[in-house]
Structures are given as C-alpha cells and as structure tokens.
Amino acid sequence: MTHPETHLRYEQDGHLVTLTLDRPDARNAWSEDMLDAFTQALDRAQLDDDVRVVILTGAGQAFSAGGDLKLMLEHQGMFEGDAARLRARYLEGIHRAPRRLSRFDKPLIAAINGPAIGAGLDLACMCDLRVAADSASFGSTFVKVGLIPGDGGAYLLARTIGFPRALDLILTGRLIDAHEALRIGLVHDVVPRDQVLHAAQERARAIAANAPLAVRYAKSAAYQSWDLPLDAALHLAASYQGVVQNSQDHDEGVRAILEKRPPRFTGH
After folding, report:
1. Which strand (E) or helix (H) includes residue 194?
2. Both 168 and 39 in a single domain?
3. CA distances in angstroms from 121 to 12, 157, 210, listed in the order given
4. Is residue 69 one of the residues assigned to a domain?
5. Staple 204 to which of 53, 129, 143, 222, CB 3.0 to 4.6 Å?
C-alpha cells in the first residue's frame, strides 16, 4: 500500500513486508510524516501474524541522509525551538523510532541501497541485519555540522561495531565505504546495487522459513540478555524455552527432522 503523503511505502509479499523510505528528493531524510508512518507501520507489522520479517530500504539513490539540512538551517519543523523545546522534540519525536524498534520483536533487515548518513546510519544500526550495496557509504557526520549523534547513534553504533571503532567514526565524522563497513562488522554483506533488495529478501526468506514464535523469542532473548548477568540471562532463556517447547511448531520441527521432510510451521 502506498501513501505518498506519508513519505513511506508499506508492501507485503507473503510473510515479508518491505518498508521503503519514500522521500527521494530529500535523500530520504526524516520528516514528521515519515516518522509517524514508520512507527505506525511497525505497529501494523507487529500485529499481523502473517508478517514474519520486515525489510527496510530507501527510494532513489540514498538509504537515508538522516536530518533535513534545509530545515536545520531554517530552524524549522523538527529543528525549531530553544534548547528545552528541542530536547522535548527529540524525546517526543525522532526518539520514537529507536524506542519503538527496541520493542519490535520481528526481525528487521536493512537493505542499504545508498548513503546512510547521520541519522540514516543510526537507523541502519537500529535494524537487526544489514545488507549494503557496493556503492553505499556510511558516516556518523554530526560533528561536521556542529551536532552530536542525537538520534541514538552514540549508543547504537557502539553496540553494533564496538566502542573504539564507533568513537573513531563519531569524533572524525569521516565517511567509510561499503567494503570498510563490511570489514568492521557494520554490515553483514555487500552486493552490487541492483541486487541489494534481492539479497535482503533471500536472508528474510531464510529467517521466515523458521518457526515464527521461536524466531521472535530468540531475538528478544538475544537483545534482553545483552546487559544481564549470566544467571539472569539463563533464567530468561529458561522462561522463553518453556513457552516455545510447548508450541505446535516445536513438535512439527522435531517431527520433520525425524521424517526427513521440510517443516510446515504455522506460528503456533
């Protein structure tokens, strides 16, 4: 379904949903309409049991340039107000994206078709997996325009590539190409630009072929266990395992292996 006024496209094909940032004239920089549509799209995908994996990509030549520089210069829209007002705008506005994604338990794959700059890089780091076009570039460029990574990047980038590498990119503001991004673990794969969406879809289908409930609980366990002591992480794992081990899909998976056939998972 396409709603041009929202700057976002929501398209479903079987168990896969593709979200396309659709503001190519502004290199898919965030707008308030896009942010609203993005969080609503995540709600829609979360509640739809047919959706097992979501892919995020950009229209045109860029994945996302992050913030709208014209609005920044004019101190309008998302960038209007004094220090207190801007703080509230961030907390109530763009921060809705990382907060919502932290509660999104279905896998999200970024198909990075072009530059992912500033808040665009932060958005890529909010995704679980990242496939990049060989022409893509990446940069935490906030210091180049007198800003900090205000969209969650100081937290997200470090968790994605490690603190020392993240600090280098944050303080220098330098751009890196797709191959360096692969070398430092920022992306999982680099492919020709015309194959980036296909490569993301292949990964998505491989995930969607697994037991949906187990995938969602496994993702939740991985993220929630990150900051937990071992004993707490083991208690969490035991609780989740108790749920999925009583699912129909668990029985189906075991039966399929014993019968040497592909499983038919239903999400129950």
Report:
1. none
2. yes
3. 25, 8, 29
4. yes
5. 53
Residues 202 and 237 in one domain: no
Q: Which of 161, 152, 150, 144 minimizes the C-alpha distance to 126? A: 152
Whether the per-residue pLDDT at 128 is higher than 90: the answer is yes
If asked whether residues 197 and 216 sit together in one domain, one would say: no
| Rounded Cα–Cα distance for residues 184 and 162 (Å) | 9
- Alpha-helical (H) ranges within 93-211 are 96-102, 119-126, 153-161, 163-172, 178-183, 196-208
| Element spanning 95, H or E | none
pLDDT digits (tens, 9 = 90+) for 182-221: 999 999 999 999 999 999 999 999 999 999 999 999 999 9
Q: Residue 104 in contact with residue 84, Cβ under 8 Å?
A: no
Residue 265 lies in a domain: no
Residue 52, helix vs strand vs coil: coil
Distance CA 218, CA 241 (A): 9
Domains held by the chain: number: 2
Within 184-229, where are the H helices?
A: 196-208, 212-225
Identify the domain containing residue 94 by its residue range. Answer: 2-208
Rounded distance between C-alpha atoms, residue 254 and residue 264, angstroms: 11
Q: Looking at the structure, do residues 117 and 225 belong to the same domain, yes or no?
A: no
Please state, in angstroms and rounded to a whole number, the distance separating the CA atoms of residues 201 and 204. Answer: 5
Same domain, residue pair 42 and 120: yes
Residue with tokens 């929501």: 10
